[in-house]
Structures are given as C-alpha cells and as structure tokens.
C-alpha cells in the first residue's frame, strides 16, 4: 500500500488505484481530533472515545471525498460471518431500521454507486473486493473467528448468487493487520482452524517461551490463500505487509493498546461518475 496522493493520512492499494470505476481508502491514526489513546483519527463507533469526536473524524473523512456521512455503510461487526447486501431497499430504510440490519454483519456487498462499504479494524483484517466485470464491491472484516467461519468464501458466494460474479474477475486487497510475531493464539483457536479444515503447517509459527510452545498465526496469509483457493488470480490479490502492532505511529492496535484502542476504517465505493 502507498499514501494517498492528496491525503497522506490515507493509504491506497496499488491494484485498486489503477481502476477508475472505484474509489477506496484505508485510514491511519493521523489527521483527526481525538485525544489520548484514540489520537487522533479514530473511526470506531464502538470504542470508548467521545462520540462527538468520532463523528467529527468521520465528517473529516467524508469531506475528503466530497460526500455525505450517510454514504458510508459501516456495520456493527461481531466477529461473525454475516453478509449484508446493500441494495435500494436497504438504502430506503430509516436510521433505526438500517442500524438494526447492520448489527452482526461482518461483510457487505453492493452494486449501488456512490456508497462506501466499510470495515473497521485494529489488528483484524480489512479485505475489499471488486468484481471488474459485473461492477460489484465487497468489504469484509476478518478476525480469526470470521476466518475460521470462512467469511471470505461466504462473501464471494453471495456475490456469485446475487450478481453472477466469478472469482476470476475479482480484485482483492488485504489491508493492514497484526503480523504473526505479535499474534499469539491459544490451543482453542488452533483446534477451531483444524476442525474447519485449515492447514496451518506453514502459516503458523511456534515460539518457545520458558519451555512453553506458543502458536502465532499469520491471518493475512491464511486469507490470501483462501482467495487463491476460491479462484481469485494470484496477480489480482494485494496483501499489505504493514503490521498494526509494530507501526504504532500509523495504526491503532487492540493487542498493543488493549480495550482503549481506536479503529481504522477501510472503504470501497463504485464511482458514480464512471
């Protein structure tokens, strides 16, 4: 990923930057109004930050793209595998009904133009997808639970079912996330991956600490391989190698900051003018 040519506090995928039919971004922690551990561009509605400051941060982002706050669709993620289709019927809902529909959704898909589909993260993976042929987009939040539940597969299956998408026509971007050096997991997580058919032989590293073996997972690589398994071409996948734990000047990190962590936002929109 590279900085936005106009806004240095936003990051862009090289692959997606070449496509004029979409607009996308990943925020960093710079450029906002929040203070303390949420300093400064916190996008997390469900963090402990001042809601007014979160709203102002989101308004700053909306102004960068000359659009309105309501054009950012951000689910209430619950580390599940729910996939919501953002269609005209959803966009016609009032605020209360839309909020209810977004609860428990960790992925969204749409063919509507001018709407940013977003995922909030602070160590988990943000994944965005673009179907070049049918002009469909998706935004996915994938932590270990979503990955075990194969949220990427379920999202692509929904794109296929509703819009006729083919994996061979997809571009996929895997955004900043925690790297395996800092992502220690317990035996129960390893068991869940194995029960669901994941081969962890070369995407997990075992570190020894005081004679105790501790497993560290590479969630980014696991999801990259999922995309490949599903038929997305190798050259159509871009994986960011920036670690949210290590790069504390750039990113929030729930592992590094505990519960007092802000959130980044990754979004993708079909360009209404193309």
Structural description of this entry:
By secondary structure, the protein is α+β, with helices and mostly antiparallel strands. The protein has a single domain (2-178, 231-270), classed as 4-Layer Sandwich (CNF1/YfiH-like putative cysteine hydrolases). The chain has helices at residues 14-17, 51-64, 88-91, 95-102, 144-148, 151-163, 187-195, 219-229, 254-257, and strands at residues 2-3, 10-12, 22-27, 72-73, 82-86, 105-110, 116-121, 125-131, 136-142, 170-174, 184-185, 204-209, 212-217, 237-239, 264-270. The strands form three sheets. Strands 1-2-3-15-7-4 form a six-stranded mixed sheet. The protein has a six-stranded mixed sheet with strand order 5-6-9-8-10-14. β1 (2-3) and β2 (10-12) form a beta hairpin. The radius of gyration is 18 Å and the shape is globular.
Question: What general form does the structure show?
Answer: globular
Which residues sit in consecutive blocks of at least 5 with pLDDT less than 50?
Answer: none
Q: Strand count, sense and closure of the main sheet?
A: 6 strands, mixed
- Please write the CATH class name: Alpha Beta
| Annotated CATH homologous superfamily | CNF1/YfiH-like putative cysteine hydrolases
What's the number of domains?
Answer: 1
Percentage of residues in helical conformation: 25-40%
At the fold tier of CATH, the topology name is CNF1/YfiH-like putative cysteine hydrolases
| Strands, total number | 15
Question: Helix tally?
Answer: 9
């Amino acid at each position: 990923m590279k900085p936005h040519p106009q806004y240095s506090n936003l990051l862009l995928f090289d692959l997606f930057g070449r496509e004029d039919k979409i607009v996308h971004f990943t925020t960093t922690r710079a450029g906002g109004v929040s203070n303390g551990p949420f300093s400064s561009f916190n996008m997390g509605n469900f963090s402990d930050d001042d809601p007014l400051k979160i709203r102002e941060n989101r308004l700053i982002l909306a102004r960068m793209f000359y659009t309105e706050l309501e054009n950012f669709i951000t689910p209430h993620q619950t580390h599940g595998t729910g996939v919501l289709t953002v269609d005209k019927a959803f966009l016609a809902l009032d605020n209360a009904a839309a909020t209810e529909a977004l609860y428990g959704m960790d992925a969204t898909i749409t063919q509507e133009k001018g709407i940013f589909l977003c995922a909030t993260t602070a160590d988990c993976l943000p994944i965005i997808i673009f179907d070049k042929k049918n002009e469909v987009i998706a935004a996915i939040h994938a932590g270990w639970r979503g990955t075990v539940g194969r949220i990427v597969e379920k999202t692509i299956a929904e794109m296929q079912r509703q819009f006729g998408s083919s994996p061979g026509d997809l571009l996929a971007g895997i955004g900043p996330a925690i790297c395996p050096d800092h992502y220690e997991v317990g035996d129960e997580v390893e068991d869940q991956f194995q029960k669901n058919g994941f081969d962890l032989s070369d995407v997990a590293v075992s570190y020894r600490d005081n004679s105790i073996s501790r497993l560290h997972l590479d969630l980014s690589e696991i999801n990259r391989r999922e995309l490949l398994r599903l038929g997305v071409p190798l050259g159509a996948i871009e994986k960011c190698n920036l670690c949210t734990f290590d790069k504390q000047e750039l990113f929030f990190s729930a592992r590094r900051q505990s519960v007092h962590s802000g959130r980044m936002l990754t979004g993708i929109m079909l360009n209404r003018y193309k």
